[in-house]
Amino acid sequence: MLGEGLALAAAMVWSLSVVLFKRSEAIHPQGLNLFKNSVAIVLLTLTMLALGVPFSETRSDGDWLRLAISGMLGLGLADTIFFMALRRLGPGLLAIVECAYAPTVVILSVLFLGEQPSAAFGLGALLVIGGVAWVSAERVDRPPDILLGMALGVVAVCCMAAGVTIAKPALENGHLVELTLIRLLAGVGLQLVWIASSRSQRAALAVFRPQAVWWTLLPASFLGSYVAMMFWLGGFKWADASVAAVLNQTATVFTIALGALLLKEPLTRRRLVGAGLALAGALTIVVG
């Protein structure tokens, strides 16, 4: 139950952070990602020191490589592309695009991890995906670059799914804080190489100059890259990847609800029904 609970908590916390990141979108997408990852590295390092958590001395070279590749894909590449999509789509529509996440992780976990989803998982997954699909069928205003935004969103989701699937076998050996920090360090390393190799990306470094946007960017980074990241990785550490992924998918519902509360987006009957179906599916997976 711990893994399932963390996966649900990750969805809720991440949804709140996405709304805050949307309010910080004046910052370059690469800068948003670099800032949030850097804040999380500082906090995780302090947490490791406070708890006396060491880096694992028994981890195999293969597991170190899995964690590094996972961090580069999921935190260095995917999150930067995610913020590019968020700028074009907004939280609500991007949450709909993120529906590709759970099916992708399930497919990868069956193909590469040998997981065999239970009947309860199948029913719960259908309810979650059905609820999300019901919400996504609602007509929304579509900006001119909608297709590019959707394409970027799908690429980001696929990179996230691939990253966590690669990391799954390495999550058994290591403290949750240490595992999260290793992935973040690898992700920032890729970002710095990316920024150094492209002059257009160097504008991202301006995010570290104190500015008014920090009022939303700092709490968004704390929630999204520190709290939600540990919850998210904990879900995959203590639950099957396919189960954690479907529970993570409820972030779509939470994002819609927070959009209504914080961004004054309309909360229609269709959205309420979809939210109910998705939450019922999540409960089915946890109880089953």
Task: Explain this structure.
The protein has 288 residues and is mostly helical. 76% of the residues lie in helices and 0% in strands. It has 11 helices and no strands. The radius of gyration is 18 Å and the shape is globular. The chain starts with a helix and ends with a helix. The mean pLDDT is 85.
SSE blueprint:
Layout: H1 2-22, H2 29-51, H3 61-97, H4 101-112, H5 119-136, H6 146-167, H7 176-197, H8 214-238, H9 241-248, H10 251-262, H11 269-287
Helix pairs in contact: 1-3, 1-8, 1-9, 1-10, 2-3, 2-7, 2-8, 3-6, 3-7, 3-10, 4-6, 4-9, 5-11, 7-8, 8-9
Q: Output the radius of gyration.
A: 18 Å
Tertiary shape = globular
Query: What oligomerization state is this entry in?
Result: single chain
What is the terminal-to-terminal distance? Answer: 10 Å
Structural class assignment? mainly alpha
User: Which range does the strand content fall in?
Assistant: under 5%
Order of helical and strand elements: HHHHHHHHHHH
Whole-number tally of structural domains? 1
Mean pLDDT: 85
Outline the biggest β-sheet: none
**Secondary structure: number of strands:** 0
Q: Helicity, in percent?
A: over 70%
Q: Which parts are unreliable, with pLDDT below 50 for 5 consecutive residues or more?
A: none
The number of helical segments is 11
